[in-house]
Amino acid sequence: MFGTLASGELETARLRRDLGFSCGGIRMEGEQTQKLVVGYALTPKKKKSFLQPKLEVLARRKGICFVPIDLNRPLSEQGPFDVVLHKLLGKEWQDVIEVSGCLLDYQQKHPEVTVLDPPGAIQRIHNRQSMLEGLADLNLSDCSGSIFVPKQMVVLKDSASSADRAVEAGLKFPLVAKPLWIDGTAKSHQLFLAYDRRSLAELDPPLVLQEFVNHGGVMFKVFVVGDTIKVVRRFSLPNISNCEKGKVDGVFQFPRVSSAAASADNADLDPSVAELPPKPFLEALAKELRILLRLRLFNIDMIREHGSKNVFYVIDINYFPGLYLKLFCYAKMPDYEQVFVDFFHDMAQAKQKKRHCK
Ligand SMILES: O=P(O)(O)O[C@@H]1[C@@H](OP(=O)(O)O)[C@H](OP(=O)(O)O)[C@H](O)[C@H](OP(=O)(O)O)[C@H]1OP(=O)(O)O
Ligand SMILES: Nc1ncnc2c1ncn2[C@@H]1O[C@H](COP(=O)(O)OP(=O)(O)O)[C@@H](O)[C@H]1O
Ligand SMILES: [Mg+2]
Ligand SMILES: [Mg+2]
């Protein structure tokens, strides 16, 4: 009956069968009455990776359903939605959000609809300077760790003169050069290591120049979905020794060393490098970040300063990242389907309570 389905698909097919689905059919048994309608505006790639059948099946059990938003029609003619979930980049969605005032009008007419997440808050982390603003001032003093952001400088034009400004700003080489804007294209992930000031002239602004922090070649990706936190280990750039700093000149592009395929969760690593950040610390950090960033769906890339116990640097923040890696048939964030269903279910409960209180 299930032919040669991959294990994940086999499990989903079984789920559908147990729930009374005909394979691929939509007959539903055992589903709750509809509790939450989530309208989504996602790229085809993101829809494919996020709306895995297992997520939809588990969601329907809780009365949560996902409905695609038609970008060619006004939002007000669609729905009604309880939640608008979006991650689109580029002009098409900006038109929906801002130019035609579509999403803003919709929000004003339907204040009860939750927009995940506010476009302005997402915009802030699409810029590698503003994404990290305010993090170093977070009040985490009574936790088992401390958080910093690497010293960095924005170069908007003429990277030749940036060398002097970088030295004046006290930045120490090597520097990681990152595109200032994140636009969902591969270009916004083209990063370089610059070992000396002369090599900066070869880089194309707008950029962020960020001090490289030795961290033992392992980084931590901390996923935040509402109140839930999950942390995974990924391989990262190795330390750069003083000897190498003295010998190497130039600028070098490096690949996406910490992508989902570079999981270090099962690697045998030096605990002083690979030990996960303390849970209370991550909980306190996520709580502060939800307030600072005004986001509920994001992840942060953190590195532990090499040789320290729990001195961490946040180097990247991503909005609602891809959660399922089709290539390896596994969720980048462990149990992401159940985490999201619980997240939306809690939202449905809160909305129901609010309606009853009126
Ligand atoms: O799809 P993927 O697997 O490349 O996921 C990207 C993430 O890669 P990773 O989780 O490290 O594998 C990627 O994470 P990094 O920036 O590489 O740390 C981003 O979250 C990216 O979203 P955006 O384009 O920056 O808004 C994510 O892209 P989207 O899935 O959001 O398009
Ligand atoms: N300041 C830094 N110090 C050390 N390594 C860094 C630094 N910034 C980035 N890296 C390395 O480059 C990788 C990608 O950087 P990141 O800022 O997360 O860009 P992206 O958004 O493309 O993931 C990180 O996972 C880490 O391996
Ligand atoms: Mg990153
Ligand atoms: Mg990123």
TrEMBL record:
Keywords linked to the UniProt accession: ATP-binding, Kinase, Magnesium, Metal-binding, Nucleotide-binding, Transferase
Xref: InterPro entries: Inositol_tetrakis-P_1-kinase, InsP(3)kin_ATP-grasp, ITPK1_N
Catalytic activity: 1D-myo-inositol 3,4,5,6-tetrakisphosphate + ATP = 1D-myo-inositol 1,3,4,5,6-pentakisphosphate + ADP + H(+)
Subunit: Monomer.
The EC number(s) this enzyme carries: 2.7.1.134
Enzyme class: transferase
Protein name in the entry: Inositol-tetrakisphosphate 1-kinase
Pfam family, one: Ins134_P3_kin_N
Manganese listed as a keyword: no
Species per Swiss-Prot/TrEMBL record: Brassica napus (Rape)
